[in-house]
Write a structure and sequence with these properties.
two-stranded antiparallel ribbon; 10 helices; mainly alpha; 225 residues; single chain
């Protein structure tokens, strides 16, 4: 079987993610929409296909505290939302056009936001955020990087890979194990478990028999020479 090299997953730090969330202009309708999309993509760890296909009937428009996600392979999951995500979605719903497609996020002409549309929005705001946080300029930020970021932050918070798997809608834990390889905490715990025993320094005292044998060898050597 051919060996396949696997790179560590790319993800954003807490500060980098916050800079990205703060990039859209909250005084513009498009900025309110973009901020809601970024919040939801990150907080729920959505695939881009899941994000752009969410319909209005998949959220409770009264409380906006959870979403019903139709995932890959028609696997469904219901995810609770952070209060910041709820606030961002409520702001978008307040200005979202009443007419248009049934999807939650619409483009400028009232049609469902396409995948390429969100990729463009993400790249635009990543460039804006990089002006305030230069470390973002060295990273290629894609929709899946937001999903990876959600997974890594969830793993650090829960220390439970099964919970990460359920959150992301993975079919098996094997798909989730990539995040364990990228989390240094796992390695530190392993290192602590394998720490060598404590050794106390001391002086070596040779027994009398060993000293006598060494002296005998010394005499034999001098005789040969």
């Amino acid at each position: 079987m051919k060996k396949v090299d696997e790179a560590l997953v790319s993800h954003l730090s807490r500060d980098e993610m916050q800079a990205l969330l703060d990039a859209p202009n909250p005084r513009q309708v498009s900025g309110i929409r973009d901020r809601a999309m970024l919040h939801l993509a990150f907080a729920a760890g959505l695939r881009v296909s899941e994000l752009v296909s969410i319909r209005l009937d998949q959220i409770d428009r009264q409380t906006v505290t959870s979403i019903h996600v139709m995932g890959k392979g028609r696997r469904e999951r219901v995810l609770p939302l952070w209060k910041e995500t709820t606030a961002a979605l409520k702001s978008w719903l307040a200005v979202r056009p009443a007419s248009g497609d049934a999807e939650l996020f619409l483009n400028a002409v009232g049609r469902a936001m396409p995948r390429a549309g969100f990729e463009y929005i993400l790249a635009k705001h990543a460039a804006t955020a990089a002006q305030k946080l230069p470390s973002l300029a060295d990273k290629r930020i894609t929709p899946h990087v937001l999903r990876h970021t959600c997974a890594m932050h969830t793993l650090k918070a829960t220390r439970h890979v099964r919970k990460v798997s359920l959150w992301l809608g993975h079919a098996s834990l094997q798909s989730t194990e990539i995040y364990l390889r990228a989390d240094p905490t796992e390695k530190l715990e392993a290192l602590a478990a394998m720490a060598p025993p404590s050794l106390k320094p001391g002086r070596f005292a040779a027994p009398d028999k060993l000293l006598a044998m060494l002296k005998s060898i010394g005499r034999s050597t001098n005789y040969v020479e």
